[in-house]
């Protein structure tokens, strides 16, 4: 049933980071329990420490029981060596535990035992230190799910943008790579694929009949008729033409500085950005703590907070949980679709 509460796997992320606090603080919000049955995957003692730090009235239960504001089911993942890791530090032990929790969440969701995954942040450095050489969650999820056409979308829910009927999504053509590598990895084919993914999630996931997709230019001023680069005429414009020929309501390329203002004001439902910071900075300025990370192209639902481990602020009791609440409620909405 569409209204049935969806069972979501919430991965703890890096135990030395802000993830456990964010989960605990979000747990008391009634919105996450209205349409979902969240279960934490991680170390129960770490979660208990976060409960005590925040003075939460939540019992951590090592079981797969029903969840609620007063009960946090936690499936134990990893061994006890994470308990001796110093808070706010990069360590292979927490990197390994975060990896194991994500793999378990993916496999359980693919098997139908969860309806979706919500991930707390992991440390890419700790992941690498543990011997898992992925740029981040997105690439690991794609490999484990066996997909090659995928993308990260940063998303602001509609309540954050009054002129946007379904919120605003920003899909990235290139993702976790050096800026100097973006030019070599940009292609018309990749741009068209991301336009397809943006159209699909805004139509099927968020219910828009004909999502309006704006495509970013790469160079300043959109290349200024070739004075600042020819990628717009050589790569991006042909991709927009191909997307339109495929029935996608895509337009561009537009200079990003003005495009994001137009999107904020309701002219577009999704933006296709050429590289990571081109999309991230603009959307986070619109709603840093309320943005949600959605992985597109997977056979399963996966959302995440749009921030990192915040080692400099972790375990100080000051975690901001608005993003985790948004990530959980968005995952439940997508799972219902």
UniProtKB/TrEMBL annotation:
Enzyme Commission no:
1.1.1.262
* Enzyme class of the recorded protein, top EC level: oxidoreductase
The UniProt keyword set, sorted, is: Metal-binding, NAD, Oxidoreductase
Gene Ontology MF, one: metal ion binding
Q: Pfam families of this UniProt entry? A: PdxA
Q: What is this protein called?
A: 4-hydroxythreonine-4-phosphate dehydrogenase
Q: Could you tell me which species this protein originates from? A: Bythopirellula polymerisocia
The gene that this protein is the product of is pdxA
């Amino acid at each position: 049933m569409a209204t049935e509460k969806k069972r979501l796997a919430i991965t703890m992320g890096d135990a030395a980071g802000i993830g456990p606090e964010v989960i605990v603080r979000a747990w008391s919000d009634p919105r996450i329990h209205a349409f979902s049955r969240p279960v934490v995957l991680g170390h129960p003692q770490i979660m208990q420490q976060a409960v005590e730090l925040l003075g939460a009235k939540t019992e951590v239960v090592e079981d797969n029981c029903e969840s609620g504001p007063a009960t946090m089911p936690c499936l134990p993942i990893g061994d006890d060596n994470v308990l001796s890791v110093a808070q706010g530090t990069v360590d292979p032990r927490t990197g390994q535990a975060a990896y194991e929790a994500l793999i378990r969440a993916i496999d359980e969701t693919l098997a139908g035992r969860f309806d979706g995954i919500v991930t707390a942040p992991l440390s890419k450095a700790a992941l690498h230190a543990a011997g898992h050489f992925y740029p981040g969650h997105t690439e690991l999820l794609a490999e484990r799910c066996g997909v090659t056409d995928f993308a990260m979308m940063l998303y602001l829910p509609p309540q954050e943008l009054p002129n946007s009927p379904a919120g605003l999504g920003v899909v990235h053509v290139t993702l976790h790579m050096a800026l100097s590598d973006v030019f070599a990895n940009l292609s018309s084919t990749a741009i068209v694929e991301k336009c397809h993914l943006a159209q699909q999630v805004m139509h099927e996931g968020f219910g828009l009949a004909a999502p309006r997709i704006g495509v970013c230019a790469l160079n300043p001023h959109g290349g200024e008729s070739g004075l600042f680069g020819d990628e717009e005429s050589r790569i991006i414009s042909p991709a927009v033409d191909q997307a339109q020929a495929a029935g996608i309501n895509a337009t561009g390329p537009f200079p990003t500085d003005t495009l994001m203002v137009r999107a904020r004001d309701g002219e577009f439902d999704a933006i296709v950005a050429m590289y990571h910071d081109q999309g991230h900075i603009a959307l986070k300025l619109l709603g840093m703590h309320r943005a949600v990370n959605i992985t597109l192209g997977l056979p399963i639902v996966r959302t995440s907070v749009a921030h990192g481990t915040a080692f400099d602020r972790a375990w100080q009791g000051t975690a901001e949980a608005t993003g985790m609440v948004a990530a959980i409620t968005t995952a439940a909405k997508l799972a219902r679709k």
